[in-house]
Give the backbone structure.
Amino acid sequence: RSASSGKEQIIKILSPGDLLGFEIFYDAKTYRNTAVAMEDSELCHVDRRAFFRILEKEPDVARKLILALGSMPIVPDIPGAHKDGVVAFRDIDDCERIKGLVSNGVKATVIGGGLLGLEAAHALLGMGAEVTVAHLAGRLMERQLDAKAAGFLKDDLERAGMRILLNSETVEVLGGEKVNGLRFKDGATIEADIVLLCVGIRP
């Protein structure tokens, strides 16, 4: 909570050169002004047939219920995925950890060429890292872009200084206690001082 503004910070988003560069705030007054009721109670049960939710204090009727429970990053089931220097980030503490690992010229590999992975890669590039993006699919952001648009994006990122590896399935994180590289399914290897896992989330 910010003592000067009375606002409570809930999220920070990656930005180039500063992994903690953009902030979104809310306060209780905002909810009151938009007729949003805030319950300090635990959800215990939902009766879908009767359309009501059972709270810790008393039943409460609800015609629609949206579950916004957050998510956790997926950590691939590959050897070495828990070595030092391998980060699956989702919250501010993870971002702070990444900032502590990055320095000018460090070799950083982002596994995952979706939106989050490319945003992270862009931020790392802005911090002076040598950035490689290793993506399983044959084009970047394949859920959002067709082949032509993905090709334009790849060209732009490579001109900016990123190395893009497509059709690259990571099968092992190399190194001792700390990561020093990755091995792919085709047998190729690359060096890496840090690895960011951006391969999706689960509720």
User: Anything to note?
Assistant: The radius of gyration is 21 Å. The first helix runs from residue 28 to 33.
